[in-house]
Design goal:
heterodimer, A: alpha/beta, Rossmann fold, 6-stranded mixed sheet, 4-stranded antiparallel sheet, 34% helix, binds adenosine-5'-triphosphate, binds magnesium ion
């Protein structure tokens, strides 16, 4: 792994890239409203892809189609070549609304254990796996607390731990850090980058925050237009080791940031009433 | 902090509710102030004492007005017994078997009636609530039946069953099943949509969805329906005894009336009132125990 900040061209040989999630000519209408136009994109195994786009573009809709929670109007989504029609076993989601996505009547540990109960694991194994995941996100000392006894950032870490313990190949996140304060947000970003490296999973993350998108991504998917289409798919080439201060102060970062910003603004302007 | 999560996790998962809390209470608390639940209870305790104070004041005022009214020259002497006479009668009745048998009979019938209402009303309400079509199509029917004053059906039911338990149960069910059906219907809508997605995405089994998502989510409204139904059922039980002549508190009330023992009439009425109050408090207590995790029980939002 070389951190080639200087070479802007993608250096990876195309043949070596494995496609994990293939989105093909995906369209979604709500009634007569065409939300998603014709979206085709491949998510590579092991990559971190962020999706940005104007509000109401259909990012959440796209994520729900990716996860099989919502059936597309046209086109399809395939995970390792198998069409997604219901939430696949290899996929987990971190929802934006941490306060609603955890069960207040279950302890932190039990919230993480619950999804494991349909597996063939023994109870000890489940407990160990859940504890390990909670340790991974730095919540070892809080196993027996309840979600409402934790701060927002901690609750979102529980949701991340729940997704990790599920041992998915791909984690979808819909604006996971949108409702926490700035400091917690950058902590969670770095946490997410770290566990992704550590566990070798693939992450697709929707965000409103352009800095966040560029900082986290291997590739940024910019959506826009009406109905929504792929505007750009940008390889960031920022290297494997990212740091809130040094990465964000590189000229490459600034350039990427400006590019995404302009692309979104040019898309948003005509559509907004 | 010693935790053996490998063991505690599945155990507490097996028993959501107060037990879950008890398990967590042991290892959890190096924190100042103990658990949040402990704090919530302390705050509620102070509040409870204060509100109790006001309740006592309110009761005292009612008693005072009652005493004054009974002494008032506007009343025929002795037609309205004062509170002292009634308490005297009550204390005398406590020494009689008739009194306790009447209470036991009433409570027994009330309990059987409420149990039948629950067994029928809760599943029916939940089933209707799950289907949007069923909710819409049954709305008029339910509104129609629940607004029929059941007491008006008493002569008819009495004719069919005589002054029996069947007569009482019929009246209880006809009047008390509706709040359970309706609250259970609404309870289904209380399930958090994000959690419905969560259980789908994490492929949680049907049984676990029932236990860990649906059951806790509907508890608040179902138990509220229970409380409403319990009050109505008690009212109907006593009324059916009073008018229909089945055994119990209502029958004793009617009997005292016919024998012009006015203080006893009031003593029995007071007993029925206290019974209703006690039932309500017990259900409230159970509800709070089951919903220990709920923002309502915890007090302020954490
Ligand atoms: N269930 C639905 N029925 C009808 N229209 C819907 C539904 N869900 C979303 N929409 C519409 O589809 C469009 C896209 O919604 P979506 O939530 O996917 O956007 P988004 O990009 O996630 O927006 P945001 O950035 O604000 O979260 C919006 O115009 C929304 O009004
Ligand atoms: Mg959205």
């Amino acid at each position: 792994m070389t951190d080639s900040l200087t070479s802007q061209k993608p250096t990876n040989p195309p043949a070596a890239v494995e496609t994990l999630l293939a989105v093909k000519n995906l369209a979604k209408n709500y009634g007569k409203f065409e939300i998603l136009g014709d979206i085709t994109v491949d998510v590579r195994a092991g990559e971190f892809m962020c999706i940005v786009g104007p509000s109401g573009a259909g990012k959440t809709t796209l994520l729900q189609c990716l996860s099989g929670l919502l059936a597309p109007t046209a086109g399809n989504v395939a995970l390792r070549g198998v069409e997604v029609t219901e939430p696949p076993a290899e996929m987990a989601i971190v929802f934006q609304d941490y306060s609603r996505s955890l069960m207040p009547w279950l302890s932190i540990l039990d919230n993480v254990v619950l999804p494991l109960r349909s597996s063939k694991m023994s109870k000890d194994e489940m407990g160990n796996k859940a504890t390990a995941a909670l340790e991974e996100v730095g919540l070892k000392g809080h196993l027996h607390k309840y979600p409402w006894q934790l701060s927002g950032g901690m609750q979102q870490r529980v949701a991340i731990a729940r997704a990790l313990a599920f041992e998915p190949a791909v984690v979808l996140m819909d604006e996971p850090f949108a409702s926490v304060d700035a400091q917690t947000r950058s902590d969670l970003e770095d946490l997410t980058l770290r566990v992704k490296e550590h566990l070798g999973i693939t992450i697709v993350l929707v965000t409103h925050d352009i800095d966040e998108a560029v900082y986290l991504s291997d590739r940024v998917l910019v959506l826009g237009g009406r109905p929504t289409q792929v505007v750009d798919l940008i390889e960031t080439n920022l290297g494997g080791h990212r740091d809130q201060i040094s990465t964000k102060s590189t000229p490459e970062f600034a350039k990427l940031r400006a590019r995404v910003y302009q692309e979104i603004r040019s898309q948003a302007a005509p559509g907004q009433p | 902090m010693s935790n053996s999560p490998a063991v505690t996790a599945p155990k507490s998962l097996g028993s959501p509710g107060p037990k879950g809390r008890r398990i967590s209470d042991k290892p959890n608390l190096g924190k100042p102030g103990g658990t949040n639940s402990g704090n919530a209870n302390d705050g509620a305790g102070v509040h409870w004492v204060r509100s109790l104070g006001w309740k006592v004041v309110a009761i005292a005022i009612v008693l005072l007005i009652w005493q004054l009214a009974s002494l008032s020259p506007l009343m025929d002497a002795g037609s309205l017994p004062g509170p002292f006479a009634v308490v005297g009668a009550l204390i005398r009745l406590w020494g009689t078997a008739v009194y306790w048998v009447a209470i036991a009979t009433t409570v027994k019938v009330w309990f059987i009636g409420l149990a039948i209402c629950s067994v029928v009303g809760i599943p029916l309400g939940l089933a209707i609530g799950v289907s949007r079509g069923a909710t819409r199509s049954t709305r008029w029917v339910i509104d129609f039946f629940r607004t029929i004053p059941t007491i008006a059906l008493l002569p008819l039911v009495l004719l069919l069953f005589g002054p029996s338990i069947s007569m009482e149960l019929t009246l209880i069910i006809l009047s008390a099943v509706w709040p359970l059906v309706i609250q259970s219907m609404y309870a289904v809508g209380q399930v958090e949509p994000v959690l419905k997605w969560v259980v789908k995405v994490f492929r949680i089994s049907w049984l676990d969805r029932m236990r860990y998502l649906w059951a806790p989510s509907v508890t608040l409204l179902v138990t509220t329906g229970m409380r409403l139904a319990a009050t109505i059922a008690l009212l109907m039980t006593v009324s059916a005894e009073y008018i229909g002549g089945a055994h119990g508190l209502g029958e004793q009330l009617s009997h005292s009336e016919n024998t012009f023992q006015r203080a006893d009439v009031f003593a029995y009425a007071l007993t029925a009132g206290l019974l209703g109050l006690a039932i309500n408090l017990v259900i409230l207590f159970l509800q709070r125990r089951m919903l220990w995790w709920h923002p309502i029980t915890r007090g302020a939002r954490a």
